[in-house]
Amino acid sequence: MSTFSLKIISTDKVFYDGKCEYLVIPTIDGEKGILAHHENMVIAVEIGELRFRKPDGEWVTAVVSKGFAEIVNNRASVLVNTAERPEDIDVKRAEEAKERAEEQLRQKQSIQEYYLSQASMARAMTRLKASRNRRGDI
Amino acid sequence: MANAKEIKERMASIEETRKITNAMYLISSSKMKQAKKKLADTEPFFYAMQAEIARILRHVPDMHSQFFDGRESIPAEERKIGYIVVTADKGLAGAYNHNVIKATEELLKKPGKHKLFVLGEAGRQYFAKREGIEMDTQFRYTVQNPTLHRSRVISSEMVEQFRNGDLDEIHIIYTRMINAMTAETEEQKLLPMKKTTFLPEDMPALVGTGLYQEDMVFWPSTHSVMANIVPNYINGIVYGCLVEAYCSEHNARMQAMQNATDSATDMLNELNITYNRVRQADITQELTEIIGGANAQKRK
Asked: For a surface tag, which of A133, B194, B278, B299 has the fewest beta carbons within 10 Å of its beta carbon?
């Protein structure tokens, strides 16, 4: 299967830099799959799970937050604020963050604070979901 | 000349102070190491981000986004300009806070309606006392240990104010570390963004000729992509500035504490010499008195 080069960069590290066969990106209206020789495109990435298959057939999952992906000349770069492996997620911390966000959402607050809490809620939920999937105990 | 006991007390107090400054030096140096690592970790992201934005703008030159709206119709005196000022939470960092405040004062002389968003307790206290300055008192964040979360809160607040027209321009004033010895106070414009700032200056001939105009599709739409990228980009810059400033602050404090420790050592050396001299003088005097007394006894 033909491959393309993929680079996933988050604010604190380069998550992946190498060849990839198949990439699935979470977008605003669902997931988007990308194969080699995709047309040039810029995609808005949403908070969610990103997956890609390496040339050796191994699937890698990453929990990503907002950002964008760009495909030019068979090269894809994904720039997101955070990218984590499901096994690196601190479940306890994510649960606490979820509770905190729920608490904040319940209280009366400005629109801007509402968006912030909503975003932290989405991040916490995705992290929890990804780490549960890994253990296979939904 | 002071007596030996006084000098001893003075030396003890200097010794105590030196211990404190030395400890502060060590703390700052370890904090700076952490900050430097953070800075190195974030660098690839910011360079890539800048390059990507430049590329996108090259491909879509006629993009209409509110983030690029210069609002030129507003005259200079009427423009509402917001400044994010990054200072330290504490003093004892040499000229670090002073330099930032001085740079801000220079900017405040320019025309326009200024509003300050001050980060760090030192700057906040200075501008709270100053008359005729509008400062957002709700804007309270620490500069210790910059996190992505804090920069997200800050940048979303600023972007929101820009969007609803409370501010027409947003600048950030921070200290950039050039190398271990020199740091420079810098001002950077966050919003509105200028297309030209992203264009490569060395090839103006290519701009607009269509040479770089490959087709590029935006998914789901240009607008939603830009709405995703720009706040992210601003967040990135704010985070970068915070880390950079944190690094400079600890570098400045490290140098200041190093100087303090050095001069404490110098003072101790000098006082030690004085103390020895005084002690010697005391002994000599005592001996003279004893010999004088003995001589007087003999003569009897």
From this structure: B299
Average pLDDT over residues B89-110: 90
Q: What is the ipTM of this complex?
A: 0.71
Write down the architecture of domain A4-84 according to CATH: Sandwich (2.60)
| Average pLDDT of the residues in B283-289 | 94
Closest CB to A28 among B48, B56, B220 = B220
Task: Nearest by CB to B217, from A9, A39, A45: name it.
Answer: A39
CB-count exposure of residue B82 (10 Å: 0-12, 13-18, 19+):
buried
Task: State whether B225 and A81 contact (CB < 8 Å).
Answer: no
Which top CATH class is A87-135? Answer: mainly alpha
* Chain A residue closest in CA terms to B236: A11
In chain A, where does the domain assigned CATH 1.20.5 lie? Answer: 87-135
pTM score of the predicted model: 0.76
CATH code 2.60.15.10 region(s) in chain A: 4-84
**Residue B202, Cβ neighbours under 10 Å: how many?**
7
Pick the closest to residue B35 from B256, B190, B261, B254 (CA basis).
Answer: B254
